[in-house]
Specification:
The complex is a heterotrimer of chains A (267), B (315) and C (811).
Chain A: E1 3-8, H1 17-26, E2 52-60, E3 63-71, H2 80-84, E4 90-93, E5 96-99, H3 109-113, E6 120-124, E7 130-136, H4 142-145, H5 152-156, E8 162-166, H6 167-183, E9 190-192, E10 202-206, H7 210-213, H8 226-261
Chain B: H1 5-30, H2 37-59, H3 79-104, H4 114-123, H5 130-153, H6 158-161, H7 165-188, H8 190-197, H9 207-238, H10 241-251, H11 256-280, H12 287-312
Chain C: E1 13-17, H1 21-24, H2 28-39, E2 42-47, H3 52-56, E3 59-62, H4 68-81, H5 87-93, H6 107-110, E4 117-118, E5 123-124, H7 151-159, H8 164-171, H9 175-186, E6 195-199, H10 201-204, H11 209-222, E7 233-235, H12 242-247, E8 254-255, E9 259-260, H13 270-277, H14 287-299, H15 321-324, H16 326-334, E10 340-344, H17 348-351, H18 355-363, E11 367-372, E12 395-400, E13 409-412, E14 417-421, H19 434-452, H20 458-461, H21 471-479, E15 481-482, E16 486-487, E17 493-495, E18 513-514, E19 526-528, E20 534-536, E21 557-558, E22 586-589, E23 594-597, E24 684-689, H22 705-710, E25 715-718, H23 720-725, E26 733-738, E27 741-749, E28 756-758, E29 761-763, E30 765-769, E31 803-809
Parallel strand pairs in C: 1-2, 1-6, 2-3, 6-7, 10-11, 11-12, 24-30, 25-27
Antiparallel strand pairs in C: 4-5, 8-9, 13-14, 14-21, 15-18, 16-17, 19-20, 22-23, 24-31, 26-27, 26-31, 28-29
Classes of the chains: A alpha+beta (267), B mainly alpha (315), C alpha/beta (811).
């Protein structure tokens, strides 16, 4: 039975307990940051920051909205990272997408393939600079969940914004919450993740459009157009074989053949 | 940034190797096996380029010593996996073909350097497979060129993945740079040296042929220019707002100088101008002009890869 | 808190004013969200800026810092004008019906003053504020609330001036927002509804802080919300155990459990103290039992009736807030009166107002001892970046202290809930817990007094130190115990020497009991955990919740006597029946002839209908009725005055500033001094606040890498409009300056701040978190360099929350 995390962004208050709890449980060190004109820090997810709150400000008329997004790996059913991984180091264990840290070669392909920028292979080094290593990201705390605990972030959330359980149940809860929000002045409320990429295992209750949170409206699987892309390359080669090469050198061959048959020589 | 210049170099050299063989094979075959030296040149340069590219890929890994993991799986869905296999097999076949070509350069029974000759005589019986291998190599060359574009396209970076035109662009550029590489080699006399190595007499290539190759290169260049315009415009217009801003980083942002001066002007407009100028003059192209234009094409090819690789990760 | 965190779920409306629970009390959102999910409660946030709490609220209403009374006054006016008050509650449980002296006049008549103001003395003669009484001293009442001299009519008259227009003009709160808030919250005046008000330092840290809190209490009385589930006036305390430290009297004016500190002029001996401090009615008539038991706890066998139970060994004060409250203390250090300072886990160099002044004061000390867990700007004030250590003569001692997790103890939540927690880690190095530290210090003091004598050595030598550093014994002393075998008149043993008392009802004034804090009495006594196990009360973890109101009576121990909601007599109507079924907390059981329900009644258990005082619901007050009209230094009703530094003139009267507040004037005009800025030079209103990522003055958080990562440095938040005016871009480094100093910080330009329109002109407001200093991984300008040295008129709490600054781009 697949499980999922339900993230009710209408309840999130941006306290970042999840962000710190994640670092603590996973023993991830802090990044060196500076204030860049926002509460948000670190600026991006990274190999040592597997979840963080993105702070989005939106002004509608005279109303301000402060929309918080708990970023991190979505554990997609159709996981791009898993598809593009050349060594098979990334794969599903139940609902959880895991990077096998012993098998990953650190090529970074999954980093580019992820529609949510949730996996990273560059890591800050103490004393400055970055080094490339294995790809790292949220594990849904599989070490906890496989032992009957909830993920560390869910455990710590004081705002009842995070929940963890059977995916069907989480969908039902999320949809009920969306209905309640829609009935209470949030017409744009929606559940994100039910069908995206054949179903995410992080489900979001949003009160605004995904783009207002910085989420892709319709996330794409990285290899959806793979065949077309290969064909694009191959056909291009084919076309260029005809023009100019066939055109130019066929003529040359024909001309030479003609010279030979007419007995004309080079001298 | 996860991928930097080593990846750009790999995409450049791998494409160039494939493009050179692609052009060489076609010219030789279409012209009725008139230029058997060309595929040899392409392979002789292509194998080291492919090996260099592969080396850079390994160096760029987070865990270099685990590179062998790549060859424990064959994953058609992963362009990286496919690319690794293509690079490997292409290099292996290239080495076999070079060896067989070389073995044929010894006359049977000839007593030159005994050990080498002996070795050659051992290999030589396999020489007839060159025919088959050369076709397989063509297929691999096409895949090699395509891989450089597919690798970036099969991702979620807007600049790379928004349209299907990146593989088209990279294949066109691969053939453009590959052809330029051939021409450069032929014009510098390096070609004649190679001819001797493979048992030929080191005669120069007829100038009409070289002009024809130059013409072919120019036409590919024009195609690449058209595809580049379509690609940039396509990503900007058809893609999402993020894709549009990705294009902006390339065209007006931090990479704009490299893009306009490196890719467009130096890599396309100047060499094409030189080429068309000499074609219009209806006489044999001046060596200096050819050397300049082909060199610029090569450099432009690298800058294109660099701009696309870096630009794709800036958004 | 009158109520409990867990009780928040019973509210129909939650008004957050001067607090930011999502940021500073994140766990509270669990309970608030329960009220929203299960009851459809609305969360209202009134704040100068759009906070993290506002982001999740149903209603957000902006307010200029320092104008809360205008807002609350408007709210009261709205409630009164529209007759939305809870009439039965107001008539029976409050002093609304009390008749006030006919000579009483208020700001409506006296242009901002109440009757009796003495300009020279800067204080009131309060005689005209007295009740009208009959010949026997009984207060005259008009239960129809119609008499023009009854409290209710005086209140109405007082707040009639606080119109919606006035609220908009003073607070800058758009009128539609004000009306939305008023409508939603006033609806809790319906008998079956309750609403809660949550506040914190945003209300108290003003020159009118006391009156801000009074306003909230008055509103909750008018709406009938106090003493009921989902109601009350709830202070979100700023430290996990600040409630405990208040109960244990970490303030100059009280000794443990809210008894007055002896005053040299007022209390020459025990008899005079008891006579003056014990009221004639209400539960405080038991004060002699509490005080004498306290003295017995402190001086043990040496405290006897013959020596006033060692009453004279207690230190006595001889002044008020202008002598002993925070700002006064630092002035005394600054002028050399105080030569030594002992600091336990405080950081005045970051947390004190006008912090440059206070840092300079530290430099004048002869010695300073600091008990701390981490280096702070106070422990190391002598080597701050702008200080030359060679110029500092202060001898500084650092005592490395154990963290809360490294020692056994109890902590008291905002909801008066005492919970035991074990030691879960060993203190690092030579660090040790406070008890162990104090024990060592006591022993050395004792040795020195024994060897050298000195002034009043008995106070130390005769202390009852039998507990030593034994945690268990200290807890027993706080709980209270019998000092001797005691029998009742029939000869039955009621107490055996050395055994703990069950609760404070057993305490006696003859020296036969000792108790370190009568309010806590019972907290260490074995009690049922709901499953029949007898467990030390504050260690209980029983999870039964009879009534399903979130009272959880078997979890921990809430003072007094495990009462979860104080004043809970008010949860029943004047006949003793619940106001509504879903909020039935306690009620009169006629069959049993006693009060019963889900909480410990805050009332005489057997006092029934028909008994005198059946509606005297507030048993701690002699008159039994809660005070809508209450004597405070600046008046019996809260009146709006501007902060010390204000961008405008007071539209309500010509009294600009709280008239009873002392303005300090030491070294004014100097670089470091009691400087006050004007709106010409410093036109922008500023407030300080905390971030969820850091803790108070930073000692506990700025060294933690994960927290420093999340909030690395000081910043100032401002509106895009102000930023444009000052040509500041988001992320720029800017200088914020006030009359006291300036700091360089990062600009966070955000639409969450909006300019106010006050008195017809645009007023900008900014805000700065105050955790930071030069110490720590997270660091930056210290916000308190900017704050003024001025305090509340009753408590002296500094006005951190409203002052004037200017901003310019750093070059």
């Amino acid at each position: 039975m697949a499980r999922a995390m339900l993230i009710d962004e209408s309840r999130c208050m941006g306290c970042r307990g999840c962000q710190v709890a994640c670092k603590q449980w996973n023993d991830n060190p802090a990044e060196e940051t500076e204030n860049w004109g926002t509460y948000e820090n670190p600026p991006e997810l990274s190999g040592i920051t597997w979840t963080k709150i993105k702070f989005n400000e939106k002004v509608v008329g005279d109303q301000v909205k402060w929309l918080f997004l708990k970023q991190g790996c979505m554990h997609c059913t159709n996981a791009s990272c898993e598809s593009v991984c050349p060594t098979g180091a990334i794969r599903h264990y139940g609902e959880t997408v895991i990077v096998d840290q012993e098998w990953c070669i650190g090529c970074g392909y999954c980093v580019s393939a992820c529609p949510f920028d949730a996996v990273h292979s560059l890591h800050e080094v103490t004393g400055g600079g970055e080094e490339k290593a294995t790809a790292r990201k949220c594990t849904l705390c599989i070490d906890r969940t496989s032992n009957g605990l909830t993920p560390a972030c869910v455990k710590t959330c004081p705002a009842t914004a995070l929940d963890w359980g059977d995916r069907g149940e989480m969908l039902a809860k999320g949809n009920a919450r969306v209905a309640a929000l829609q009935a209470n002045g949030h017409p744009k409320a929606r559940l994100y993740g039910e069908r995206e990429l054949a179903g995410l295992h992080r489900l979001y209750v949003l009160v605004d459009e995904p783009s207002a949170y910085g989420l892709p409206e319709s996330p794409q699987h990285a290899t959806t157009n793979l065949l077309g892309q290969w064909l694009g390359g191959i056909i291009t080669a084919g076309v260029l074989a005809a023009v100019p090469f066939w055109l130019l050198f066929k003529r040359q061959r024909a001309a030479e053949a003609k010279e030979e048959t007419s007995g004309g020589g080079e001298q | 940034m996860t991928w930097e210049w080593p990846i750009a170099i790999d995409l450049w050299v791998a494409g160039m190797a494939g493009g050179a063989y692609f052009a060489a094979f076609l010219i030789d075959r279409i012209s009725g096996r008139k230029h058997p030296l060309l595929p040899k040149i392409a392979m002789f340069l292509g194998v080291p380029l492919v090996l260099l590219g592969s080396l850079l890929l390994v160096v760029d890994l987070g865990e270099q010593l685990r590179a062998w993991h790549l060859f424990t799986r064959f994953r058609p869905g992963s362009a990286m996996s496919m690319g690794s296999w293509i690079l490997l097999v292409y290099a292996l076949i290239g080495i076999v073909m070079i060896a067989l070509w070389w073995s044929k350069s010894f006359e049977p029974g000839e007593v030159r350097l005994t050990v080498l000759a002996g070795l050659a005589s051992v290999i030589r019986p396999a020489a007839p497979v060159i025919g088959v291998l050369s076709w397989i190599a063509l297929l691999l060359a096409v895949l090699l060129m395509s891989y450089t574009g597919v690798l970036l396209s099969a991702t979620n970076q807007p600049l790379w993945a928004s349209t299907f035109l990146l593989p088209v662009l990279f294949v066109a550029s691969a053939i453009f740079t590959g052809t330029a590489l051939l021409l450069l080699v032929l014009k510098t006399g390096l070609g004649r040296l190679l001819d001797i190595l493979f048992g030929g007499k080191g005669e120069p290539m007829p100038s009409e042929t070289m002009d024809a190759i130059g013409k072919a290169m120019a036409i590919v260049g024009v195609v690449q220019l058209v595809v580049l315009v379509a690609y940039v415009g396509g990503v900007a217009l058809l893609g999402t707002p993020t894709a549009a801003s990705a294009v902006t980083t390339m065209t007006v942002g931090p990479l704009s100088f490299l893009f306009w001066a490196g890719v467009v002007l130096m890599g396309l407009l100047i060499p094409l101008g030189l080429q068309f100028a000499s074609m219009k003059a209806k006489r044999e192209a001046i060596v200096g002009s050819v050397l300049t234009s082909t060199s610029l094409v090569l450099i432009g090819g690298f800058i294109l890869r660099l701009v696309v690789v870096l630009g794709g990760q800036m958004i | 808190m009158t109520n409990q965190w867990r009780d928040l779920k019973n509210a129909d409306a939650v008004l957050v004013c001067g607090a930011n629970p999502a940021e500073n009390h994140p766990a509270s959102m669990y309970h608030i969200n329960k009220a929203r999910d299960e009851r459809g409660a609305k969360l209202i946030v009134v704040d100068p800026r759009f906070t993290r709490t506002a982001s999740t609220a149903e209603i957000y209403a902006p307010i200029r810092s320092g104008t809360d009374i205008a807002f609350y006054g408007g709210l009261m006016n709205y409630i009164l004008e529209n007759s939305l008050y809870h009439e039965e509650y107001v008539v029976n449980y409050t002093n609304a019906s009390f008749m006030i002296n006919e000579g009483f006049q208020g700001p409506a008549e006296l242009d901002g003053y109440f009757s009796g103001f003495d300009v020279a003395a800067q204080s009131y003669d309060k005689s005209t504020w007295a009740h009208q009484t009959d010949d026997e001293g009984n207060i005259l009442r008009d239960e129809t609330l119609q008499d023009p001299n009854c409290v209710f009519q005086l209140l109405k008259k007082h707040y009639a001036r606080y119109t919606t227009d006035m609220v908009e003009q003073v607070c800058g709160m758009p009128r539609d927002k004000f009306l939305e808030v008023a409508q939603v919250f006033a609806a809790t005046g319906a008998p079956e509804k309750t609403g809660t008000i949550l506040y914190a330092m945003g209300q108290t840290q003003h020159t009118v802080g006391t009156q801000n809190v009074r306003c909230m209490a008055m509103i909750q009385l008018l709406l009938g919300n106090t003493g009921r589930p989902g109601g009350g006036v709830n202070a979100l305390r700023g430290e996990s155990n600040v409630q405990g430290s208040t109960d244990m009297a970490i303030l100059y004016h009280i000794i443990p459990a809210y008894m007055a500190t002896p005053n040299a002029a007022k209390h020459k001996d025990l008899a005079e103290y008891l006579e003056k401090e014990t009221p004639s009615g209400g539960y405080w008539v038991n004060k002699p039992k509490f005080l004498i038991s306290l003295l017995k706890a402190w001086w043990g066998e040496n405290a006897t009736s013959r020596n006033d139970f060692c009453f004279d060994y207690m230190g006595k004060i001889s002044g008020g807030i202008n002598s002993y409250a925070w700002i006064a203390l630092f002035h005394a250090i600054y002028d050399g009166t105080i030569k030594g300072l002992w600091i336990m886990g405080q950081n005045p160099a970051v947390g004190g107002p006008n912090a440059r002044f206070e840092r300079k004061a530290l430099e004048k000390l002869e010695w300073m001892v600091v008990q701390e867990i981490a280096p702070t700007a106070t422990t190391d004030f002598w080597r701050a970046p702008d200080v030359d250590p060679a110029s500092i003569q202060t001898e500084v001692f650092l005592l490395p202290a154990a963290d809360a997790m490294e020692k056994e103890g109890t902590i008291v939540t905002s909801g008066r809930l005492l919970q035991y927690r074990p030691k879960v880690a060993v203190p690092p190095g030579v660090a040790m817990g406070d008890i162990e530290m104090m024990d060592l210090i006591y022993r050395e003091l004792r040795r020195l007094y024994e060897a050298e004598g000195g002034a009043l050595p008995e106070a130390v030598l005769e202390l009852n130190w039998s507990h030593g550093a034994d945690f268990e014994k200290i807890c027993q002393e706080i709980n209270g115990y019998w000092t001797q075998d005691v029998t009742d008149d029939d000869g039955n043993v009621v107490g055996k020497a050395g055994e703990m008392v069950v609760n404070f009802t057993k305490l006696r004034d003859d020296g036969s009991t000792a108790c370190g804090n009568w309010l806590y009495s019972g907290y260490w006594y074995p009690a049922d955990d709901g499953d029949g196990n007898m467990v030390t009360a504050s260690k209980r973890r029983g999870q039964k919740d009879p009534g399903d109101l979130g009272m959880y009576p078997y979890w921990g121990f809430s003072w007094p006597v495990n009462r979860r909601i104080i004043y809970n007599r008010c949860s029943a109507d004047s006949n003793g029946n619940p106001w509504s079924e879903d909020k039935a907390l306690i009620w009169w059981d006629a069959a049993e002839g006693k009060w019963t329900g889900y909480d410990v009644p805050d009332f005489s258990k057997t006092k029934g209908p028909g008994d005198a005082g059946f509606t005297d619901a507030f048993i701690m007050l002699p008159e039994g009725k809660s005070r809508i009209f209450a004597v405070r230094n600046e008046g019996p009703f809260p009146e709006h005055y501007e902060p010390l530094e204000s961008p405008t003139t007071n539209p309500l009267s010509s009294v600009q500033f709280n008239p009873v507040v002392k303005k300090w004037d030491v070294d004014s005009g100097q670089d470091v001094g009691d400087n006050v800025g004007t709106a010409d030079e410093f036109p922008i209103v500023c407030s300080t606040y905390r971030l969820v990522e850091h803790w108070q003055a930073g000692g506990m958080s700025v060294w933690l890498p994960w927290l420093a990562e999340a909030q690395p440095e000081t910043f100032v938040e401002m509106s895009p409009e102000l930023a444009e005016e000052k040509r500041i871009s988001n992320g720029d480094r800017v200088i914020v300056s006030s009359a006291r100093g300036e700091i360089e910080v990062v600009a966070v330009v955000t639409p969450r701040f909006k300019p106010f329109t006050v008195n017809g002109k645009t007023v900008h407001q900014v805000g700065i978190p105050w955790h930071f200093s030069w110490q720590g991984l997270a660091k930056g300008g210290t916000a308190n360099f900017l704050t003024p040295h001025v305090g509340d008129g009753n408590t002296g709490i500094p006005e951190y929350k409203a002052f004037l600054v200017d901003i310019r781009k750093a070059v």
